[in-house]
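tool_call: predict_structure(chain=1)
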Amino acid sequence: MNIIAISGSLRKDSFNTALLRAFRAIAPADMQIEITPIDALPFFNEDLEASVPDAVLSFKEAIATADGVIIATPEYNRSIPGVLKNAIDWASRPYGKNSFAKKAVLISGVSIGNIGTAVAQSHLRQIMVTLDTFLIGQPELYLGPAQKIFDEVGAIADESTKTLLKNALKALSDRVALTLK
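tool_result:
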């Protein structure tokens, strides 16, 4: 099972990118998780659709050929970061060539606050439903505070969080199996 993972943060020491690495570390043997960077994508511009940049083509292809997607988003001003929205816009365009269509998608996020990224994830769910994805509804992954979840090397230190992440990967795996039938 090929899963593409997208972090909505470009920060070098991003907690959300660390979360994706944690997913990859605990994934079952039959699940390969590839973290796909979004920092090389240009700003979305419909004028560029006539000659789509190579970075965009590679990103769209990675999603289109994946069995499922994991998105880890920070919360900026009660929404998703602009870089994540930009990546989603590129992956879903042009009309009729939506790389996210019919993909199983797991949404997650971690922050330094207690409510994780709940509001940003709510906004992201609205976007992803519009893109015809199969969202994982449970478990919800509003993780925080990050300083209690990760140890000094960025691994998950909290056992209950590891269990929650394993349950989320199981839900994603089950949803992917349904979409591949």
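agent: The two ends are 13 Å apart (CA to CA). Proceeding to next step.
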